[in-house]
What does this fold into?
Amino acid sequence: MKKIPTDKDFLKKAVIKAKESVKAGGFPAGAILVQDGKIIAEGISVGYQLHDPTSHSETSSIRNACKNLETTDLTSATLYASLQPYLMCFSVSNWANISKIVYGCKKTDEMVKKNYYEGFNNVEEINQKNLRQIELVYIPDFENEMLEIIKDWESNLNK
It folds into this structure.
């Protein structure tokens, strides 16, 4: 009998994408989009290489899914993000009608101070003010792993 993947299983795949992003010379963030239990798109954060400030892992996966499915409506899709989505990525998720975002590492004050995030905006508070709310789920199981990936990435920046 085939095991049905859980949110943790898909989130682990997003963490793996974060590692792939680093190997590709990008920021340590990864995302996957799932619809009807199947991965429909993946994304890594290589905006610097592409000269595209919007090419974050979440936005990239949304862009790929919409292009492949020839739609802008991902109502039944779930976005799995290794890091808590940046305000831009959260907004794109909202405009794409994504129903749920699952993430594995919360944004920290240190991350904001290092300009890894746009500021101290709270997407949960913003979500409550939106006309349509996205279900936001934080699963802390991969938080330490993601913080280590970020730390390793930072230590290699100066080499």
